[in-house]
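step: validate -> pass
step: tokenize input -> pass
step: predict -> running
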Amino acid sequence: MPLSLDLDGVRAAVIRPSSLLDALTDYWELCWNQALPLDVPAEDPLGEEDRLVLTLLVSGLKDEAIARQLGWSVRTMRRRMSRLHELLGAVNRFQAGVIANRRGWI
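step: predict -> pass
step: emit ->
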């Protein structure tokens, strides 16, 4: 494993089978599974309502306020948020907003 990004004086460490290697391998797999190709624009599976929900979400509104603004029930709003969390791979509202922003969806 390289110890720096400086290619002039290449220094590296050898990591033998260990819990550190297992952790690095798991981290690499996680990053690889969530990565997007550099040369292909990310697909945008969001509809206009989903984009509006995310926009209201990142503006700081609570579920009840977003539901009221869109004319939905709170249950419908939470169901839609659950679907968006799953689609984005997010575990909370903040993470959903960050991921959607990074992907250029909002």
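step: describe -> The first helix runs from residue 19 to 34.
step: cleanup -> pass
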